Amino acid sequence: MGLRRSFFIRLRHCPFLFKTVQAAFDNLPIVMSLSLHLLAVFLLTYDFSSESKSDVVSVPMFVVDLSQVKVAEITNLPPKLTKSASQKTGKKSVRTSAYSKASAQSAKPESRGGAKSGSGGKKQSSGAMLENDLNKMLKSVTTAPKKAEAPSDVQMVNSVRSSGTQSGGGSDDPFKTLLASVDGIKSGMGYADAQTEAEVDADEIVTEGIEGGQGGSYMQELSVSEKDLIGIKLRECWNLDAGVRGVQNMLIEIRVFLDKDGTVKDAKILNKTKYNKDAAFRSVAESARRAVYICDKKNEESPFRLFSKNYEEAYDTWKTLLLRFNPFDGGVI
Amino acid sequence: MTKKIVFFAFLFVLLASGSAKAELSIDITGARSEPMAIGLPEFSIGENSAKSDAKKMAQKIARVIEEDLSGSGLFRTLDPLSYLQSFKGIEDAPAFVDWQAISAEALIQGHVDYLSKKQIRVSVRLWDVYAAQEMYSATLEIDEKGWRRSAHMIADAVYKRITGEDGYFDTRIVYIAETGPALNRIKRLAIMDQDGENHQFLTDGLNLVLTPRFSPNMQQITYMSYYNDTPRVYLFDIETGKQQIVGDFPGMTFAPRFSPDGQKLIMSMADNGKTDIFEMNLNTRVIRQLTRSSAIDTSPSYSPDGKQIVFNSDRSGAQQLYVMDANGKNVKRISFGNGRYATPVWSPRGDYIAFTKMAGGKFYIGVMFPDGRGERLVAEGYLVEAPTWSPNGRILMYFRQDAPNKKGIPGATKIYAVDITGYNERRLITPVDASDPAWSPLLSHR
């Protein structure tokens, strides 16, 4: 009761709050009932699936407010793709749909059959080189088909995407379905042609997201296969003593802090209590942290560079990552 | 009132957490498993030390550390020619980039100093090269003669810090040294360091000696010996060299083993055609019978907590493994595979039971969980038998005998060790044929 009294004494400075809180305490059953109703409504309406840490779910759901979506004058493409394409095609028509390019940007090496588009942005001079490196990295790990020439590259991805949209009925990605239809509308209006024929200097291209809605984040395009790729690269960096006691039941979580260029600023082992108490856990956790640094020291081959190369604009989304090392699910290689 | 506040706090936290943004997470499943690359540059020496002596000593200590770590199969030292940095003192900071450049994952920096003519000081620092952090450091002051043990202790400390488990380098092996023709084999008790150094014979070979086992306190060895053609269980004191018979039993006693606290001895005793398991209190010499069956129950071994016993029995018709409580109750069969199972030994860390298996005309050394799941064979041969655990439960040592040659002469017997993962099988070099090894506890834990 002492606590209640002092609480009210402090609230006296604000008569309105004082009265409200006093009324709340006087009608506690009603307040409790109201709170529970609010909680029930929240639980029913909130989408917890987007908060869970499963493989697919960390890609947030697309929520696009159609009434507010409009096509920007200039593309929201990351500059790297456009520059890369423009370097290869000179000052030819490089403008397909902004959305198509954004999609091409994240074309999947395996399932979508596309090749990675290159890097660029402020690193334009080394864009092509980075692109090649990234492609090498991808090829070394995945069974990605041979990379096509740049102009057809984008077209190929487009065609794969649109056919996928038609045949798959947009089964897995409503946003991509939407993009395809917006593409269709634009071509019908002759909009795309007008844009396509315009000669664009790569340096003029700046990035802008789709105005309105939440659909502009590139990280939403981080595909399962890209995540797999990063996982595979990290697995190759992870040297584990397979005979450590209890290793089969361990799960190591490491939070990685990345710089804008994709280098590792810091890697922190979570679950410090277990780390300090359990020497076997500490041993496995340290080997996992070592894997992060070993991969980071591979410079251009570092899996973390994928973010700076492909998702430079979405730095806020990938500046910290949660890596979950599971020693035995995938077996020891 | 407190309850109400807690309720509202809970509500607030729930609402706040609901609105938190998801973090991008990536799963890494599986890993590669290969020896960890270690940089072990030449140890620096103190300025006051006579240079040639100190340098020699530093090299000897570093070599033993290297052999211990490499021999475990979990580490490999990098070629010294590739090293880009050398150290002048223990305070020199490592240039991590240089060590990363040669892919060293860890670095051992050492320093040897002569405090007096016979007294040396050894300092070591262990570094995580990629995390750029010191993992461990220690300084030992020892008599010069103890340099080998100090090197083993340092290797143990490095092993423990990196793997999270005790090492096993500062340990000894007792075994049966065999000489002479097959029909008149002389079997003597012998002891040596785990790396084969400091070898010595403990008995003269007049009496046949079998199944030696260390006591947990390292002072004594128990074994079976035939004296006047009667097998008896004996205790042998390592320091005094004296042996004594453990009681006088009506039948034959064999397969003795100490309890984890060293206070009891568990063994088999054969009488009137049946063999049962007995426990003897070494202080009071009181005997307690633990199994009562018409079958042959033998090879008992305690769990590390002393609460259970694993043994083998042919009560089901063939030799199989059974686990029971330390008082002889709750007997449960745990092996159900093809073939026969024998010589079970409970791992010192408790997670596995090692055994010898005979199936399809071959012998195997294997491990299984104490409930019988997860059977895994780690060695096979014409004859492989008598597994013994390293004190950290990581390595299995056993002996192997080759098939007889064309003239029917039995093959040589040799001691081998293998990691429980089944990798890194190595032979332990002994001066004569060797069988029935037993691994001591860690000497520094004595």
What this model shows, in words?
The complex is a heterodimer of chains A (333) and B (446). Chain A has helices spanning 2-11, 15-26, 28-45, 79-89, 98-105, 127-141, 150-168, 174-188, 191-197, 224-237, 272-277, 279-296, 305-310, 315-318; strands at 252-258, 264-269, 320-326. Chain A is mainly α and 333 residues long. Chain A contains 14 helices and 3 strands. A 3-stranded antiparallel beta sheet of chain A has the order 2-1-3. Chain A starts with a helix and ends in a 7-residue tail after the last strand. The longest helix of chain A has 19 residues, at 150-168. In chain B, strand 11 and strand 12 (220-227) form a beta hairpin. Chain B starts with a helix and ends in a 7-residue tail after the last strand. Chain B folds into 2 domains: 10-163, 3-Layer(aba) Sandwich (Rossmann fold); 172-445, Neuraminidase (6 Propeller). Chain B has 446 residues and is mostly beta strands. Chain B has helices at residues 2-18, 51-71, 96-101, 147-163, and strands at residues 25-29, 36-39, 44-45, 75-77, 106-114, 119-128, 133-143, 172-179, 186-193, 200-201, 209-214, 220-227, 230-237, 243-245, 252-258, 264-271, 274-281, 287-289, 297-302, 308-313, 320-325, 332-333, 340-346, 353-359, 362-368, 376-381, 383-389, 395-401, 413-419, 426-428, 433-439. The longest helix of chain B is centred in the first third of the chain and has 21 residues, at 51-71. The mean pLDDT of chain B is 88. Chain B is globular, with a radius of gyration of 26 Å. Classes of the chains: A mainly alpha (333), B mainly beta (446). At the A-B interface, helix 3, helix 10, helix 12 and strand 3 of A face helix 1, strand 1 and helix 4 of B.
